[in-house]
Amino acid sequence: VPAALTPDQIRQVCRSYESLGYTPPSEYECPPKLVFVTHAKFGPDLGGVAGADFKCWGQAMLSPVTRGREWKAWISESQYNCPYVTFIRSKTRYELVDGTKIADNFQDLVDGNLDNPILKNQYNELYYGWVWTGTNAGGLWISNGHCDGWTSAEASAGGGYAGYNNYFDDFKWTAYSNIGCETDELPIYCFEQ
């Protein structure tokens, strides 16, 4: 009976439905998916997409608001390992940790525009600046911008695409510029799954 489930159990039921491509039954009142930009900054040698996902999990563990949820980084290393392919296609809205809406659902998330910029970290603190992504606004891989699959911080690694998180109504939040892999450390975007 949905009313007897805890919020964490409801979240897991909703995630199970969505991971199979189904819309959860309306009686579950699925909670919004959270989104944050990491408090910590990292070099582009992230250990690939899997390493970036692990960094999102580690950052989320540091805050009671984001702890205990499933996370993936908004980052790409190939056409098959990018948010458009690997993310759960959520039917529920995406929000910052303070409740600010980012998108109505996954399709709204990858339509090229966000409802608001991703300016808050897991502690609900503001951050303005560059964010590693290697990903275009549609959630797809940018072929020449991933620092050797997010494994190198060398200048010879070809550059890494970064977004600037102050933007939201065009591609610049995720694909503003290709910057050197030897650049200072940057945060990453994390999306609840």
Describe the structure.
By secondary structure, the protein is α+β, with helices and mostly antiparallel strands. The chain is built from 6 helices and 8 strands, in the order H-E-H-E-H-E-E-H-E-H-E-H-E-E. The model has no long low-confidence stretch (mean pLDDT 94).
Break the fold down into its secondary structure elements and pairings:
Elements lengths: L6 H13 L13 E5 L10 H13 L10 E3 L9 H4 L7 E2 L5 E3 L2 H4 L20 E3 L14 H4 L9 E5 L7 H4 L1 E3 L9 E4 L1
Parallel strand pairs: 1-3
Antiparallel strand pairs: 1-8, 2-8, 3-4, 5-6, 6-7
Mean pLDDT: 94
Strand order of the largest sheet: 2-8-1-3-4
Shape: globular
Task: Please report which band the strand proportion falls in: under 5%, 5-15%, 15-25%, 25-35%, 35-45% or over 45%.
Answer: 5-15%
User: Between the first and last Cα atoms, what is the distance in angstroms?
Assistant: 23 Å
Question: How many separate helices?
Answer: 6
What share of the residues lie within helices? 10-25%
Query: Structural class, judged by helices and strands?
Result: alpha+beta
Describe the structure using short key phrases:
193 residues, five-stranded mixed β-sheet, three-stranded antiparallel β-sheet, 6 helices, 8 strands
Summarize the model shown.
The chain is α+β, with helices and mostly antiparallel strands. It has a 5-stranded mixed β-sheet. The protein has a 3-stranded antiparallel β-sheet with strand order 5-6-7.
